[in-house]
Amino acid sequence: MPDSTALKKRVEELSKRRWDVDAIEARLLNLVSKGIPKKVLNREDILADRKKITDRVQRRGEEYNFLARNCAQSTALAVMEEFGLGNMEIVKALSPFPGFGGTGWMCGGVTGALIAIGLYFGSDDPLDHEAVGRTIDAARIFMPRFEATVGSVVCPKIQEEVIFGRYMDPAACPENMEAFAKDKGFEKCSLLPGIGASLAARIIIDSMV
């Protein structure tokens, strides 16, 4: 069962956070201009810094969503940046994925995390069935963890039960989007990219044990 009290407290904290816009924007622009730096992952260092890494990934998922206003992109980018995965073309492809194309279906904190999981566990070879299996196994760990943490994987229920007390459907019309922004929706909904990115990072790190 999700800890509703803790989640709502976190949403309130995000709505009041003083975001370091200049620093967040500078980091994003650096990724846009230079791409995602490739990394040689050191297993021992990652395992030793597990909490530091998951906390950093969570924070960056939140920050990117606040500024970029795209939960799916922000979730994926936070994990991709941390582990040196993929490129910005993948981030671009995630543009329509908040609310699963704005339909009110799958949360971008889920879809973005699954993309990052696929980049880490998957293969460039579509005939590598073992890699597909690894990716599916990781996804099947992620999905129930996200649902257990948040209470759902779909936007309407998350918005109603955790974020706003109602479903705001921001993609339905300009008036809804205006109301969403006025109610600090981009700040509050940063909860989900933070959680999705952190859970994905933990699954990646667990695979190194």
Note down, in words, how this protein is organized.
The protein is an all-alpha fold and 209 residues long. The protein has one domain (4-206). Helices cover 71% and strands 0% of the residues. The protein is built from 13 helices and no strands. It has helices spanning 4-16, 21-34, 43-48, 50-68, 71-83, 88-93, 99-102, 108-121, 129-150, 155-163, 174-182, 185-188, 191-206. The longest helix has 22 residues, at 129-150. The protein is globular and about 45 Å long. The relative contact order is 0.18.
Low-confidence stretches: none
- Count of separate structural domains: 1
Shape: globular
Q: If you average the pLDDT, what whole number results?
A: 97
Helix content: over 70%
Total strands: the figure is: 0
Major beta-sheet overview = none
H/E topology pattern: HHHHHHHHHHHHH
**Which band does the percent of strand residues land in?**
under 5%
- Overall structural class, as computed from helix and strand content, comes to mainly alpha
- The radius of gyration over CA amounts to 16 Å
Note the total helix count. Answer: 13
Q: How would you summarize what this structure contains?
A:
By secondary structure, the protein is mostly helical.
Features:
mainly alpha, 0% strand, globular
Layout of SSEs?
Elements: H1 4-16, H2 21-34, H3 43-48, H4 50-68, H5 71-83, H6 88-93, H7 99-102, H8 108-121, H9 129-150, H10 155-163, H11 174-182, H12 185-188, H13 191-206
